[in-house]
Specification:
The protein is α+β, with helices and mostly antiparallel strands. The protein contains eleven helices and 15 strands. The longest helix has 23 residues. The mean pLDDT is 94.
């Protein structure tokens, strides 16, 4: 596997475009389109929030019932959530318009929205945006990067990644783009992610691979504990790599899963590290657990702890907050066996051993915690399983951003 420059347009046959439709933002692009020159097998996972935005309902139906998908239309600024039948009708109108200009069925058009909940889309601007997007479709790095920028809301930078790998003597590419900075929590988050590949694979295995992988990637991040109404992750495979189609599990399927895991992990960490107001990516790894589930529950509890996140922002080695968050996670463990470390490019330091504080240097700990990527490692000494979760620190700017988000 080799990482390459690019994102959603890295794989053969995929194009992208962006435009400024004036949906909410001024002087920036706010709509994007991804298009495959040939029909795609499509898989998806969506928010677990009971309140689901209209685009989630639309895409979920396409993933389940459509023979294929070929395009995705995305807008930033308005979420089209809690908008009733009118919001669903706007999904239909958007898909119909895309179908018209692209020459494909409306049932092959996915839609996605992100932004403020409760407002109706300015459908005339959306329709005009679709008309503007189609002629701009292009392959290559620049088109993909421009699309990744267009779907941002409070994100501070675009998020994309791509890799190549070999299957059946053919070079296969998988790449993707995502957005997400706030209202991010495990169980899919206001995250939108679009992953594309030229792999030939059955729809059933495509969905199985995605559903399994999301548990270890996007579902292991949290910024603020809020599970969004709009979370959508779509994976499209058009088969243009011309590898022997993967129809059963084996070495080829495993190679694909490895590449998918790299792409999804990279995108997920980008979102966690770009949390609203964040200054650091905060990774928590629990090792030597009895089970993977136990390790993941403990790791997620720590990254969701507001007190721990605030300590990371202040570069304060307040390990008691971490042990406390582990204690209320619901996962059983022996606190008298736990060793805890902090690690970053600034070094590694052991803070507690067998649940008791060591005589460590606060100055050295602060130096380690001052890096833009910080890891806490908890050793349970109970088994050989492990799990990792990703979050960010909690800064003053998080409140500032969210206090006036609608304006």
């Amino acid at each position: 596997m080799k990482q390459i420059t690019g994102g959603a347009t890295a794989a053969k046959g995929f194009q992208a475009a962006c435009t400024a439709a004036g949906i909410k933002y001024e002087n920036r692009t706010d709509m994007a389109m991804i298009y495959s020159q040939v029909p795609c097998r499509v898989a998806g996972t969506f928010t677990t929030n009971l309140v689901k935005a209209a685009p989630v309902l639309w895409d979920r139906d396409i993933v389940k019932n459509s023979d294929y998908a070929q395009a995705v239309v995305v807008n930033a600024g308005i979420a089209n959530a809690c908008t009733g039948q009118e919001g669903l009708d706007y999904c239909q109108k958007t898909a119909d318009q895309a179908a018209k200009v692209l020459g494909i069925p409306a049932s092959a058009v996915c839609v996605a929205s992100t932004g403020v909940i409760g407002k109706q889309l300015p459908i005339d601007r959306i329709m005009a945006g679709v008309d503007a997007l189609a002629p701009k479709l292009a392959d290559g790095v620049e088109a993909g990067n421009a699309a990744a920028k267009a779907i941002m809301t409070t994100d501070t930078h675009e998020k994309e990644v791509a890799v190549t790998f070999e299957i059946g003597g053919k070079t296969v590419t998988i790449g993707g783009m995502c957005k997400g900075s706030g209202m991010i929590h495990p169980n899919m988050c206001t995250m939108l992610a679009f992953v594309t590949t030229d792999l030939a694979i059955s729809k059933e295995l495509l969905q199985e691979a995605l559903s399994a992988n999301v548990k270890d990637t996007f579902n292991m991040i949290s910024v603020d504990g809020d599970t969004s109404t709009n979370d959508t992750l779509l994976l499209m495979a058009n088969g243009l790599a011309e590898n022997p189609e993967i129809t059963e599990k084996g070495a080829d399927y495993d190679a694909f899963c490895e590449a998918l895991n790299f792409v999804n992990t990279t995108l997920a960490k980008m979102m966690a590290g770009d949390g609203e107001g964040a200054t650091a990516l905060f990774e928590v790894t629990v090792v030597n657990a009895e089970t993977k589930e136990q390790a993941q529950v403990l790791a997620k509890s720590v990254i969701c702890s507001s007190l721990t996140k605030a300590a990371i922002f202040g570069h304060d080695a307040n390990w008691g907050r971490i042990l406390c968050a582990m204690g209320y996670s619901g996962a059983a463990f022996d606190p008298d066996k736990v060793d805890l470390y902090f690690e970053s490019k600034g070094g590694k330091i052991k803070l507690i051993e067998n649940g008791v504080a060591l005589d460590y240097s606060e100055e050295e700990a602060t130096k380690i915690l001052s890096e833009p990527e910080v890891t806490a490692i908890a050793d349970l000494k109970l088994g050989d399983a492990q799990g990792t979760a990703w979050g960010c620190d909690l800064s003053y700017d998080y409140v500032k951003i969210n206090a006036d988000y609608r304006s």
